[in-house]
Write a structure and sequence with these properties.
The complex is a heterodimer of chains A (909) and B (590). Chain A contains 15 helices and 53 strands. With 909 residues, chain A is α+β, with helices and mostly antiparallel strands. In chain A, strands 6, 7, 8, 9, 10, 11, 14, 16, 19 and 20 form a ten-stranded antiparallel sheet that branches. In chain A, helix 12 links the parallel strand 34 and strand 35. In chain A, helix 8 runs parallel beside helix 9. Chain B is of the alpha+beta class. Chain B has a domain of 93 residues. Chain B is built from 13 helices and twelve strands. The chains are: A alpha+beta (909), B alpha+beta (590). Chains A and B meet through helix 1, helix 2, strand 26, strand 49 and strand 51 of A and helix 5, helix 6 and helix 7 of B.
């Protein structure tokens, strides 16, 4: 029992409960002006930093130098390092060793083995500069004033400190007359003791010739970041500080639940990425300058550790970032199906009724979710025994139809010594401490709560032991986990989070690790499921891939699991902003994400809900979710028409699972995102750089969501240089960037196009779940480009274990050229073991788009089988509204090499 | 063997399967609905989609490739998006299944025909619900008949009891009237005496209270300082004794309350609750409810108890708990008694439940709050609030008067009841009825409908009560059983415009206990209600149920034998289908 509670018990006003609010509460959150480090540095130009020419040394891949700030009476020296890892550069500026404790660096976000990629400089010095090159990349370091320019193939990519905004607040002793805010700050009654004083870092960078910059999630705003500084612009800077924001706004610079300090700048021929390896709070100003986009980037503490990904293509930037922080973990196949969630499915009967509702209405789904109310008093990993008396039987029953369940487990632990998790963690001193070293006591869903210090590897190791069924009573092998509130959310803390002077492992201040806290909790939970999966008798010798959804995230989260965009609202504006939000996450290395379909807060009408499902099926993570006090909105509650439309949408998702799973394999291997802005695939068309209302899923599918109520028509931008086939009708449209195609829309579907030149694998049989599709045959949609060619591939494995990493997979390549479709082995990146998988799976149908439909065809496969071919309108039940050439019942084996020749005319008997 | 083949043939006929000689089992169209079998007959080797949109080779039916836009060519495979699969589920109920569920690894039909890979036939087991329900009904019937027997056995006693009451009730009435007379006199005398004492007491208490109030106001400022000092002392002590640190924090908290009494600042918890409340109006979802005084007491109690029972820090802790108690006392004196309007409004039951395991008794130093009953006394010369807030107030003792008043009221009630009884037994004493109905003597039932509740007592009377206002309309007095004991009738109730006086017919049926439901008004002012009672159960109906059970079991046994006999043929059919589907590519398709 804590004193805060005792006090409140006597005095708490009734208003505690019954205040209903209905919007983002600006006053609960800081602005740059009320945040010392930002206020001190924002817009400050003319700093005096120079490189000591005598100090410049180059040793292979590493340049070292001393950087001097000559502004103070006694100049301050810093160590500068510049390294090259092939096309990736790294700039580090840190304090020189002194009596001060060193600045914090995140120990384990970067991928191991980076060192092996170090590439030696070819450099030369003059009195004022040093110039070095690695491959196509050249850097020029100007000594006074300090400036660093990076060029790729002779074209400038990024220039650091061209506006002299670079600044490192050096260590100092507290003195009389120090400016206010250096050694203590207070916000809304919360004092921050700031024992290290001012320690911010600022740097400016410009991207010559670029029109836009992208990235730095998470916020609900445009894909191309709007200017926040410069003439005639009055805006808060973009903020990177993981916060639990109640009812966030749909168009705001404000930072939300996660942070990835990665920015991309793009111009024709050059995409450049920046990654600041630092987990402290950050602000970023974007300014449209004459020379291109110019940004100032300020962080509260830590070191300057900047990576430059030099591309030059957008795909290469994402791949280079994948090399630094890892790529997306291969998900379980079920997790790519539809997830049905609600705060809360209230008891077992409710859960069964929802499960049965999907079968009754013949709508596929894979996972049923339970939010916080399923627990005994928000003690996670317990059950409310009145509502869920038989959780094991419930999970087994739902799993008997091939489905899974997910329960929520949050990082706040109810302070109750009868709760085993609290008792054990408290005894082991595993909780975050206050500045005085006592166990931190904050308020969250369970009331008085403590927070596991997951920055401590030992705590993560202990946490990872908690998910086996002997520890997590009432759990089964069919149960997976959802981590919410891991920003961390602290209801009575400053800005609904932890105080910055709280202490973590190694007495590191919370300010240094804030943005990475959620990642560590997510990681520890996922490791818990990996550990659970190591039980060979239950999961087999290859274990079980974890599935843990998180709300908070940081660089590296992609290696752990998916995230969702938090508590959005049932509004058209939130439907619209979900597209740039998910696109941005993809560009910054975290493609496995999605927004709550339907919107969390409020009640969507049938039209909004339908449009949201029609878009949501293309989110890499596809879940419907709703607030406790909203009306029920399972897909069959809005009348027959809506049920049918949502059924068709979700079936469309399941039909694309082979394609989506294959795309996941690609991002797993390279880091390339699933949902891509148009400019990502067509980087040389400036008119596409600002397009965010439509996108591509992988290389081959263009999606134009309908984002307005009552829309009768939409304007679709079909990029030049490709033929586009309308997905339902098969009609071909040539791409014309800058000349949108105005198309009438109806409620049954949103416009979707296949891109000529790409072969998309599908599974067209509607099923109740992904598991039920395991033996179904495939359909190949061959969309021909202008020269009659198309390529595609299909990746399969067991969909659940780590066997694929040992070579138990099939990755097949399809090429259509000169009227012949061939199937052979997809070449793999170096280091990937060759794939083999016994499989009886077949191709049942090949749909070819782009051939004259009026003609008669036959097809002959290499095993000398003839296949009937139908062409024209209505030839396929899936293309009832359009025409195509369909090779029927080809029954070609996926696992073997073959070719199929399409012949004009009717073959002789 | 011979028998089962015969049964099989019969079944084939009854299901309207092709009756021609070529009705070989392999021609069975998997998944086809019985009334569509004819459409699956080849016409010149062709099949026409049900919607007429296409004609295809008949061998493309159920070949695991969807040709018909209406999904009609693949009733037995999953190839089409909107196909319908029929399972016969012999022994249970036939079912129409979406073809999405065919061959998906989940057994949906109890006969297992939706999965080529094979499922156990569970149709007869599915019937267990029907069987179990019948068995339960039989058991219930037996129990009801037993109760009926007990009713009959009680008949003599029931009749005797009524006879005796009829004889004795007048004497009881006289005795009670006498008692009431005496109590009324006592009450009048005591009222006069008490009023005199009350005036004296009131005056004395008012003087004392005024004196204490002055003292308290002087002490208020001092108390805050004391509390703070106590907290400081506690903190110092705590520094020496780590185990006692938590209790010190408690004292500090109490001191904080004292300071906050004048100017309220948001506490950590309030801040947490306020933010939690943004997300939901449901307090249960936003953290445990605890702002009622009950929870406060429990919390404080637990806190103190924790400190006291902590063996490792016993000395320090008990010292600190005294500090804490003292601090809390001072605070209470300043801010008033723990019971206030806010806590009275909160839902005590809920917060007690939310406090969960914290159900220790209240602390000994806490005075009981003045009872509500005292606050509605007339002409109270002091401000109620200040007196109520005065923990030293001594309530006035008028318990003797209260007791006499209560006794007089009880005697009045008893007298009313006896007079009613007198009327009733006068009507009942000459009634004749079958022995089994004795169990219903004076038993009262009610059926609640949206607007009215219908109440009746067997052998006595019936009425209709308005659920809104509680107005009661008589539906008459007991008339007797009619229609061979299937109805009980009340009549001669309240006047009804243009219809006979109100009446009620109770339709009796067999049941294990007395219940009433489903009241209606079939004719104007003539009401009806259903009721069950063991007294209405009949032995021959039990026999009938038992016969039903026997034939159900026989049926099941026969079905099981049939299903087993068909199994071999079913497997053969499946093998043919499997070969067609899986080996589809092996056929030359042109």
């Amino acid at each position: 029992m804590d004193r805060g509670r005792a006090a409140a018990l006597l005095l708490c006003v009734a208003a505690c409960y019954f205040v209903t609010t209905s919007a983002f509460k600006e006053q609960d959150f800081k602005k740059c002006e009320t945040n010392g480090f930002c206020k001190r540095n924002r817009g400050v130009k003319g700093t005096k930093y120079s490189v000591d020419p005598a100090s410049v040394k180059v040793d292979g891949a590493e340049l070292t130098a001393v950087l001097i700030n000559s502004e103070p009476q006694e100049p301050v020296k810093f160590n500068l390092m510049l390294r090259a890892y092939g096309p990736v550069l790294r700039l580090i500026v840190d304090e020189q060793p002194s009596e001060h404790p060193g600045r914090y660096q995140i120990p384990d976000i970067l991928m191991p083995g980076l060192k092996q990629r170090l590439t030696a400089w070819k450099g030369q010095s003059t009195a004022h500069t040093w110039t070095g090159s690695v491959g196509d990349v050249t850097v020029k370091l100007t000594f006074a004033t300090f400036k660093l320019e990076v060029q790729v193939k002779g074209s400038p990519a990024v220039v650091f400190n061209s506006r002299s905004m670079f600044n490192v607040e050096h260590p100092r002793k507290k003195q009389e007359g120090d400016p206010e805010g250096w050694w203590e700050e207070t916000f809304n009654g919360h004092a921050d003791s700031k024992p290290a004083g001012p320690e911010a870092i600022s740097i400016d960078m410009s991207f010559p010739g670029s029109q836009h910059v992208y990235g730095i999630p998470e916020r609900a705003t445009n894909l191309a970041l709007k200017p926040t500084a410069g003439a005639d612009v009055a805006s808060e800077p973009y903020r990177l500080y993981n916060l639990d924001v109640f009812e966030y706004e749909h168009s705001s610079v404000f930072g939300l639940y996660g942070a990835i300090p990665v920015m991309l700048a793009h111009k024709k021929g050059q995409t450049t990425g920046i990654f600041w390896h630092n987990a402290a709070e950050m602000y970023v100003d974007v300014e449209t300058a004459k020379e291109g986009q110019a940004v100032q980037w300020i962080t509260e503490s830590g070191v300057l550790d900047l990576f430059v990904m030099t591309g030059p293509s957008p795909a290469e930037v994402t791949q280079q970032y994948g090399v630094l922080t890892g790529t997306t973990a291969m998900p379980q196949l079920f997790s790519l199906g539809y997830h049905q969630c609600r705060w809360n499915y209230k008891d077992e009967a409710d859960a069964f009724a929802v499960d049965a509702g999907f079968d009754e209405h013949n709508i596929p789904y894979d996972v049923l979710w339970l939010d916080i109310e399923h627990t005994d008093g928000k003690r996670y990993m317990t059950w409310d025994s009145r509502l869920f008396p038989n959780p094991v039987q419930m999970q087994e029953d739902i799993a008997s139809r091939g489905r899974k369940m997910v329960t929520i487990v949050d990082p706040h632990v109810k302070r109750d010594s009868n709760y085993y998790v609290y008792k054990e963690a408290s005894e082991k001193k595993y909780f975050v401490r206050t500045k005085d070293g006592t166990e931190f006591d904050g308020w969250c869903w369970p009331g008085s709560s403590s927070y596991l210090d997951v920055t401590n590897p030992e705590v993560r190791g202990w946490w990872a032991q908690q998910f086996t069924p002997d520890r997590y009573q009432g759990s089964t092998k069919h149960l997976y986990i959802w981590n919410d509130m891991n920003e961390p959310s602290v209801f009575n803390g400053p800005e609904i989070t932890m105080k910055k002077d709280h202490l973590h492992f190694g007495d590191v201040e919370h300010r240094d690790i804030h943005n990475v806290f959620g990642y560590y909790y997510h990681l520890a939970t996922a490791e818990g499921l990996i550990h659970r999966g190591s039980n060979v008798s239950v999961y087999g010798e290859h274990g079980d891939r974890p599935f843990v959804l998180s709300r908070a995230f940081f660089s590296g989260t992609q290696r752990v699991g998916p995230i969702w965009t938090g508590d959005n609202a049932a509004q058209w504006s939130h439907l619209a902003v979900s597209v740039p939000m998910v696109l941005t996450l993809g560009l910054t290395g975290l493609p496995f994400s999605g927004a709550d379909v339907g919107g969390f807060f409020g009640n969507p009408d049938a039209e909004l809900l339908t449009r949201w499902y029609q878009l949501g099926i293309y989110y890499p993570f596809f879940r419907g979710h709703a607030h406790l006090e909203t009306q029920r909105r399972e897909p069959w509650l809005f009348g027959e028409d809506t049920t049918r439309r949502i059924r068709e949408a979700i079936r469309g998702r399941y039909a694309l699972l082979p394609y989506i799973y294959t795309l996941f394999r690609h991002t797993n291997q390279t880091g390339i995102p699933l949902m891509r802005p148009l400019w990502f695939e067509f980087p040389d068309q400036p008119a596409l750089y600002g397009v965010e209302e439509e996108f591509l899923l992988g290389p081959g599918i263009l999606v134009k969501p309908v984002l307005q109520a009552g829309a009768q028509s939409v304007d679709i931008t079909l990029p030049e240089g490709a033929v586009w086939y309308e997905a339902l009708g098969g009609a071909a449209f040539p791409g014309k960037t800058g000349k949108p195609l105005t198309t009438a829309v109806h409620m049954d579907a949103i416009p979707v196009f296949y891109r000529g030149g790409v072969i998309v694998p599908r599974r067209d049989r509607p099923r109740r779940s992904s598991a039920a599709m395991a033996n179904d045959p495939f359909t190949l949609v061959v969309a021909l480009d202008g020269s009659g060619k198309a390529v595609g591939d299909l990746y399969i494995d067991d969909g659940r274990s780590f066997a694929f990493s040992k070579g138990q997979y099939l990755h097949r390549r399809f090429i259509y050229e000169h009227g012949v479709l061939t199937c052979d082995t997809m070449p793999q990146p170096t280091g990937t073991p060759e794939g083999t998988l016994p499989s009886k799976l077949l191709i049942e149908r090949v749909i070819i788009l782009g051939l004259p439909a009026g003609k008669a065809y036959t097809a002959r496969s290499t095993v000398n089988k003839m296949h009937s071919v139908v062409s024209g309108a209505g030839v396929d039940v899936r293309l009832a509204k359009g025409s195509a050439v369909v090779v029927r019942a080809v029954n070609l084996p996926l696992a073997s090499d073959w070719s199929l020749r399409l012949l004009e005319g009717v073959a002789a008997e | 063997m011979g028998t089962s083949k015969g049964v099989l043939l019969l079944l084939l006929l009854s299901l309207c399967l092709a009756s021609t000689a070529q009705a070989a089992a392999s021609n069975v169209i998997r998944g086809a609905q019985p009334d569509q079998i004819e459409k699956y007959q080849p016409v010149n080797g062709k099949f026409t989609c049900f919607d007429g949109s296409k004609t295809i080779d008949f061998n493309l039916v159920n070949d695991n490739f969807c040709d018909c836009p209406d999904s009609s060519d693949e009733p037995g495979t999953s190839a089409c998006p909107n196909g319908v699969f029929y399972c016969r589920n012999k022994g249970h109920e036939p079912r129409l299944l979406a073809t999405s569920f065919v061959d998906d690894g989940v057994c949906d039909c109890c006969d297992g025909t939706d999965e080529l890979s094979g499922c156990k036939n569970t149709c007869i087991e599915k019937n267990s619900a029907k069987r179990d329900a019948l068995r339960a009904k039989i058991d219930e019937y037996k129990a009801s008949l037993e109760t009926k027997g007990q009713y009959a056995a009680s008949a003599a006693g029931v009749r005797e009891h009524i006879k005796q009451r009829h004889a004795n009730v007048d004497g009881d009435i006289a005795a009670t009237e006498q008692e009431l007379q005496k109590l009324t006199a006592d009450k009048k005398r005591l009222e006069e005496e008490t009023e005199v004492k009350r005036v004296a007491h009131k005056k004395q208490q008012a003087e004392l209270a005024a004196q204490r109030k002055a003292e308290r106001e002087a002490a208020a400022v001092k108390a805050t300082e004391e509390a703070a000092a106590a907290a400081k002392a506690a903190e110092e002590q705590a520094a020496a004794d780590k185990a006692a640190a938590e209790a010190a924090a408690a004292a500090e908290g109490a001191a904080g309350e004292g300071a906050a009494a004048a100017e309220h600042e948001e506490t950590d918890e309030e801040r947490g609750r306020r933010i939690a409340a943004q997300w939901t109006n449901d307090p249960a979802a936003a953290g445990p409810a605890s702002d009622s005084q009950a929870a406060a007491d429990e919390a404080a109690s637990q806190q103190q108890q924790q400190a006291v029972t902590d063996e490792a820090a016993k000395d320090g802790a008990s010292y600190l708990s005294r500090v804490y108690s003292k601090a809390k006392e001072s605070v209470q004196k300043i801010i008033g008694s723990p019971t206030n309007a806010d806590s009275a409004e909160s839902d005590d039951a809920d917060s007690a439940a939310a406090a969960g395991d914290e159900d220790e008794p209240p602390l000994p130093y806490e005075e009981p709050a003045p009872e509500d009953g005292d606050t509605d006394e007339p002409d109270w010369s002091m401000n109620n609030d200040s007196v109520n807030a005065d923990p030293d107030y001594e309530p006035f003792d008028d318990s003797e008067l209260k007791k006499v008043s209560e006794d007089a009221s009880a005697a009045e009630r008893k007298l009313t009841e006896l007079r009613t009884e007198k009327e009733r037994v006068a009507r009942q004493v000459d009634l004749t009825f079958n022995d089994a109905w004795a169990g219903l003597m004076n038993k009262c039932l009610e059926a609640r409908m949206p607007q009215f509740t219908y109440k009746f007592c067997f052998f006595d009377k019936a009425s209709q009560v308005d659920n809104g206002g509680g107005h009661e309309t008589s539906l008459g007095l007991w008339r007797g059983f009619e229609k061979g004991g299937t109805e009980a009738v009340f009549d001669g109730g309240d006047y009804c415009h243009k219809a006979p006086a109100r009446s009620l017919r109770v339709r009796l049926e067999c049941g294990s206990e007395e219940k009433a439901w489903d009241a209606s008004e079939p004719e104007v002012c003539s009401y009806a209600v259903h009721a069950s009672t063991p007294a209405a159960c009949k032995t021959d109906r039990l026999k009938q149920l038992e016969d039903n059970m026997a034939s159900l079991l026989a049926e099941e046994a026969a079905l099981a034998a049939e299903i087993a006999a068909e199994e071999a043929q079913r497997q053969a059919d499946l093998a043919v289908l499997r070969a067609k589907i899986e080996g589809g590519g092996a056929h030359d398709e042109l």
